[in-house]
Write a structure and sequence with these properties.
Blueprint lengths: L1 H22 L6 H22 L10 H5 L2
Helix pairs in contact: 1-2
Length: about 70
Amino acid sequence: MVNECLEWVNFAENDILTAETMSKLSKPPMEIVCYHCQQAAEKLLKAYLVLKNEPVLKTHDTVFLNSK
């Protein structure tokens, strides 16, 4: 359980790093920056579900994931 949670957190950290790096470009592609921010939020919510012993569903709906 802890390993799976850490894996989700590591994936989220990579998305955050990508968003931060891309946002520093002279003309940042904001739709891509926002995409990676959403992905990071989604993955952190999934990490939290793992800690709660809840099933991690295949969804990108952060509102739904946050309601669990």
